[in-house]
Specification:
The longest helix has 27 residues. The strands form two sheets. Strands 4-3-2-1-5-6-7 form a seven-stranded parallel β-sheet, sandwiched between helices. A six-stranded mixed β-sheet has the order 12-11-10-8-9-13, covered by helices on one side. By secondary structure, it is an alpha/beta fold. It has three domains: 142 residues, Rossmann fold; 147 residues, no CATH class; 73 residues, Rna Polymerase Sigma Factor, Chain: A, CATH 1.10.1740. The chain has 15 helices and 13 strands. The structure holds nicotinamide-adenine-dinucleotide (NAD) and magnesium ion. Magnesium ion binds next to helix 7.
């Protein structure tokens, strides 16, 4: 029986994690969870999961209300790190979005917990620190991202003579538009993802391809491959979740209907359940599935992954927070779609590079990137007003 603490229970990955736990009560017990501002899910989760002892609420004004409704449960808004340290659990599922996930990931590993990680930003920002902890024997890490789950399965079958790891990408909501047609595209259109139903931030990240840039970095840290050994292939249907190309030209991938409950389940079971991968000699063999080369002119942001994975240091922290602030502004219709990339470029140049940052220095770089991004967006908004 694995006792689970779920961070981000109210989100897209969070609610699908609850589905997986509900379907496998013989193997998993939910012992605690956190929600942000969407507290509506609390009632239904508590109704089903009587072992939950503690719930984190981001909104502290609601702690009193929920404490009186459910006296057997402790409600707190103290902090996610405190929650991770306090709850007696075997596994932490991190389904938080953005930078907010970094500290809980590190705290979980420091406490020698198993970490099922959807929050890829943890690795983008703190990949070196996280790998350092794992190397020292602190905790275990299981990825939830569908591409990385597929690669995990393929490498489990055969990790010898690997030529390249290939991440597939849907291309997001604007994949049929040329770059020059991206000038006036609006957030409400970007939120219309062609193949996956996800939270707002990652849906915008898919449209800009920052998500794929993050995933290259994520794969680099998870599987220890250099950026030249990680490629991207555009794929319309999101059925081939990613694949490995071996030196003899053979390819191995995972093909299934897009459903995040599969990678979530695989991570919760620590990879110890049956799975299937498929081999092929060419993508042309996969009838009914469509692929296109990923052009760096169309998606220049992909090149940033190579820079971050090569120079490491605080570059991931700067990239991540510049993007987070820009996506937030784009969602509020304050800046244009292509301004997201411009904000990232500005911050990557503005914030000073640190080669081997501590966690505190990653926090500082994040804070500086936040201020630089806000300053740049203010300048953009002023420009638009004139
Ligand atoms: P979401 O927006 O639907 O949910 C995010 C959750 O985090 C919510 O519960 C929210 O309340 C909580 N949260 C956000 N900021 C917080 C803060 N400061 N303090 C406390 N709680 C906070 O996002 P999602 O789509 O579920 O994505 C979660 C993570 O999983 C992201 O890192 C995303 O990139 C990754 N991911 C998502 C999918 C998907 O299909 N949704 C697929 C692969 C990876
Ligand atoms: Mg993914």
């Amino acid at each position: 029986m694995t006792r689970i603490l779920l961070l981000g229970a109210s989100g897209s990955i969070g609610s699908q994690t609850i589905d997986v736990i509900n379907k496998n009560p013989q193997d998993f017990t939910l012992v605690g969870f956190s929600v942000g501002y969407r507290t509506r899910c609390i009632r239904s989760i508590l109704l089903k999961h009587k072992e939950v002892k503690i719930v984190y609420l981001r909104d502290k004004t609601k702690v009193k209300y929920y404490s009186s409704r459910y006296p057997q449960v402790t409600f707190t808004s103290e902090g996610l790190d405190e929650l991770v340290n306090k709850v007696d659990c075997d596994m932490v599922v991190n389904a938080l979005v953005g930078y907010s996930g970094l500290h809980p990931s590190i705290t979980a590993l420091n406490a020698n917990k198993k970490l099922a990680l959807a929050n890829k930003e943890s690795l983008v920002v703190g990949g070196e620190l996280i790998n350092g902890l794992l190397k020292e024997g602190h905790g275990k890490l299981y990825p939830i991202d569908s591409e990385h789950s597929a690669l995990w399965k393929c490498l489990k079958v055969d990790d010898k003579n690997v030529n390249k790891l290939m991440l597939t990408a849907s291309g997001g909501a604007f994949r049929n538009l040329k770059r020059e047609e991206l000038v006036n595209v609006k957030a409400k259109d970007a939120l219309n993802h062609p193949t996956w139903k996800m939270g707002a931030k990652i849906t915008i990240d898919c449209a800009t391809m920052v998500n794929k840039c993050f995933e290259i970095i994520e794969a680099g840290y998870l599987y220890n491959y250099s950026p030249s050994k990680i490629g991207v292939m555009l794929h319309d249907e999101s059925y081939l979740h990613s694949y490995v190309i071996y030196n003899n030209g053979l390819m191995r991938g995972e093909i299934s209907k897009p459903d995040m409950r599969n990678p979530i389940k695989f991570a919760l079971y620590e990879g110890n359940i049956p799975f299937a991968t498929q081999t092929f000699n060419s993508l042309d063999e996969l009838k009914g599935l469509h692929f296109h080369e990923c052009s760096l002119e169309r998606y220049p942001v992909i090149a940033l992954a190579k820079k971050v994975l090569t120079k490491k240091g605080n570059l991931g922290a700067i990239l991540n927070m510049a993007n987070e602030v820009a996506v937030d502004a784009y969602l509020r219709d304050q800046i244009s779609f292509l301004d997201i990339e411009k904000t990232i470029d500005y911050c990557m140049k503005k914030v000073k590079y640190i080669a081997s940052p501590s966690l505190k220095e990653l926090d500082d770089s994040t804070f500086k990137a936040m201020n630089s991004a806000r300053e740049y967006i203010y300048f953009l908004k002023e420009g638009n007003r004139r």
